[in-house]
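If you are new to this repository, start here. Below is one unmodified record pulled from the training split, so you can see the exact layout before writing a loader.
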Amino acid sequence: MRRDLAEGILFTDQYQLSMAQLYFRMGLAEREARFEHFFRRYPDYGQHQAGYCISAGLTWFCQWLREVRFDDVALEHLADHKTDTGARVFGDDFLGWLAEVGDLSALRIEAIPEGRVVHPNVPLTVVEGPLALAQIVETPLLNHINFQTLIATKASRVVEAARGGSVLEFGMRRGPERGTNAASRASLVGGADFTSNVGLSHAVGFPPKGTHAHSMVQVFMALGEGELGAFQAYAEVYPDDCILLVDTIDTLKSGVPNAIKVFEDLRAKGHKPVGIRLDSGDLAHLAVHSSRMLDEAGFDDVRIVLSSGLDEITIWQILNQIAVEAPRYGVDADTVIRRLVYGVGTKLATSEGDPSLDGVYKLVAIDGEAGWQPAIKLSDTPAKIVNPGRKEVHRIYDSRGFATADVLAQSGEELVPPLRLFHPTEEGVERRLSESDVSGSEPLLEKVDAWTPVDEREAIETARQRRVADLERLDVGVRRLVNPHVYHVSLSQASHELKQRIIEEMHQDM
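And here is the target side for that same chain:
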């Protein structure tokens, strides 16, 4: 398959190009327009829900923007596209205009940087520029940023559940084909320390991490060398990176004792064993007893990697069980927990329970004869009525220094307490903040230099720092894994009044 064709400038939906040609024919193609990308609700995994999201995917979207072109190959394919009656879908006039435009560099991007905590109805990405081009990028923008934001959010929840324990992303084998590269990267943005995805790891500047498979132990058992022989072979090849998978036969009666024998040999040769991995059974119970056995053998610094169906709720349950069970066996629970590493796979890479982010891309303003004109979409569903106008996003901090509201204000509007804030979708719901309620604010949208390449590792590490800083200023109730407290997203008074005025005018014209 021609991946360069499938993933280049034609990586969009058909109706985006159809609308672009219509705008061209109507003389609107180069009219300045503003689109905003936001999501309508947090991921809901069924028995547990997210109370925040982590922005991710902007770097890869910008890379796509830089690389794609309306080249001869793409235009030839568009020229060959026929209707059911044999007529051409795209005319030479429109294709000639695309060839003259050449690329998407006429677009201007603002965005909330990767790694930041974000909430529903808040613009994550803003696109301004020629209407036809801004329309064409809808699909690739949503594709790049929605999915990575979804996975970065899941990763952040897993990392929070781990209480400081190291998290490794292991989901490549069951991920969404090549989309698993995006999942691995987003996991790193969301706080995972490393991924097992070798190619992606090297591409973004992180060392890949992994252990070994059960099949290796099975091979040596089938050949008469046994589990111990398998462990010895692995230790011989990887003496300074030895993590042994101990649950192929019997974890506590065979696996851990054989691992300890190999670790003793490694230590005698001057090497430092790294850890064991538990991949089945009652992971909390096995972790407690494995930790006890390792301590008794003098390997109190050896890590225990847990894997097999982990997500944030499973990790939370495991840690709670260890806290209760360890003392019953005379084991210090904190000692067990400190040595744990979490290998999180399928449920992270696929965001199990909610596999898509409800992210949308809506026109909010267009440059008319009298300057920028707000645009709105009405709906019988109030949550789908667009908040119109060219907006800024401000995060308001309360008297404790914690984030208390994200406010959608009109461009240039000053937010000076006391503030009257309105629900973005529900009529009649408002909130007031006095001067004493507010300690400060900051703008969230930043201009993006989409046309200059960035260092991937630096981008990920910076995003991680933003995530940590934002979470430290987010109420613990909002961060709850189950039934989180609602964070306030609000319209400023000017934004609310503009929206209501336009709605009333449109109803009068019906």
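Two things worth knowing about this chain: The chain has a mean pLDDT of 96. DSSP finds 18 helices and 20 strands in the chain.
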